[in-house]
Structure formats: structure tokens, C-alpha cells
Amino acid sequence: MAVTTALLTAGPLALSAQAVDAPTAPAVTAAQQSRAEVRVNSFFRDYRQAVLHKGPSTPAQVRARYLAPDLDKRLDAWALQHDADPVFRAQNVPATWATRYEGSGAGHSTVVLTERWSGGAKQEVWFSVRLQDLVINDLKDPAS
Asked: What range does the record give for the signal peptide (predicted)?
């Protein structure tokens, strides 16, 4: 994790705020994103690739790398209760996504990730990122 944190703070990495398979999306650099947005975007990209069997890791390995252990357990329970992927909050994989910084306080940042499916449907998932170590410690449906 120290290497990832160092990379995130080392300089402007060119990161897309959209999925890799959406080449028409404008690139957003790390310099334009908060550290929490970069972290959520990296997690979502890696997790999506793992679910699609296109990356070197399994979904469980990606979750273990980015998520707090108690959140990982809560997501397992959510998946059983809803019969859907607990990160995507759906039964299928979104085609693209975008992140936005929602604010910070008490050592955490909130990042809203908007998922989009090829049929035009979209939904938001709210992430909480602990600023001290950039661990994602909460993920939930939109705030009420």
C-alpha cells in the first residue's frame, strides 16, 4: 500500500475518470482529482477488470487490497441479501463510470462514483476514503 500511496502523491499520473473501454471520454489527470478520487477510480477500474477476468487479480484480491476488512465483510453480507455485486450494486457490470469529489471532514473524503450501463441507465455509489492511508472504509447507496 505504501507504494500505491507514493505513486498517488508522486506527481500527475494520467488517469481516466471513465472506464478503459470508453476511449471517447476525456482524460482527467490526478492533478485535477483529489487523492480520494484517484483511489476510488483505481479501485473501481481494478475491480471491474477482475470481474471481467481481464486483470491479474480476482475480485476478492482487489477488494482486500483497497477496502477496510470490516467493509469487505459488510459487502459480502450485502451481496447475499441483494443477490447482486456489492460494489456495482447491480447484477451486471457497468460500461463506464465517473467520479466526483463530494467533500472531506473528520479525516475522510467522500467520493461519488456514477456508474453507467450501455442501455443508458446510471446510478451513484458513495465511497468514504480514510485520508490517513487512503483505505476505502465505506461504500453505500446515495445519501438521503
From this structure: 1-19
